[in-house]
Amino acid sequence: MKLDQKKIDLLYQKAKDAMQNSYSPYSNFKVGAALLTKDGKIYTGTNIENASYGLSMCAERTAIFKAVSEGEKNFEALVVIGETDEPISPCGACRQVIAEFGVENIILTNLKKDLKIMTVEELLPYGFSGKDLNDQNSDNR
């Protein structure tokens, strides 16, 4: 599904605003995300660090988990923003979560508003999904 510029601009601003709530005292690397559901709701997220680095949470997963915890599972778009030279790139864990929930449009950006719009397949080629588990279980019967 093609996103119109008005939606992209709104999601960009929401992600940028969310970035300001980042809790990143260790890396000082702020990231924001805005997730649009197919029925028009927007959920935002930011990165939240922890002194035990493995317990930190990325902005993308924060937004997705907030939405899913509220009963949402149908997503049209996700914008991720960071203070990077090029559009920010999600980590592998975030790519897997984005794929799990089938976000249709992933928009990677930065404070200069350079945009890279991708599909899940482009973001995570050969991704692992529940279908792989179902296929594996049916082979073992």
Automatic annotation (TrEMBL):
GO CC annotations, alphabetized: cytosol
Enzyme class: hydrolase
GO molecular function, one term: cytidine deaminase activity
Binding-site residues, Zn(2+): C58, C91, C94
Amino acids binding substrate: N47, I48, E49, N50, A51, S52, Y53
Catalytic residues (UniProt): E60 (proton donor)
This protein's UniProt keywords: Hydrolase, Metal-binding, Zinc
GO terms under biological process: nucleobase-containing small molecule metabolic process; pyrimidine-containing compound metabolic process
Catalytic activity: 2'-deoxycytidine + H2O + H(+) = 2'-deoxyuridine + NH4(+); cytidine + H2O + H(+) = uridine + NH4(+)
Cofactor: Zn(2+)
Enzyme Commission (EC) number: 3.5.4.5
InterPro entries recorded: APOBEC/CMP_deaminase_Zn-bd, CMP_dCMP_dom, Cyt/Deoxycyt_deaminase, Cyt_deam_tetra, Cytidine_deaminase-like
NCBIfam families, alphabetized: cyt_deam_tetra, PRK05578.1
Family: Belongs to the cytidine and deoxycytidylate deaminase family.
Described purpose of this protein according to its UniProt entry: This enzyme scavenges exogenous and endogenous cytidine and 2'-deoxycytidine for UMP synthesis.
Protein name stated in the entry: Cytidine deaminase
Organism whose genome encodes this protein: Marinitoga piezophila (strain DSM 14283 / JCM 11233 / KA3)
Organism taxonomic ancestry: Bacteria, Thermotogati, Thermotogota, Thermotogae, Petrotogales
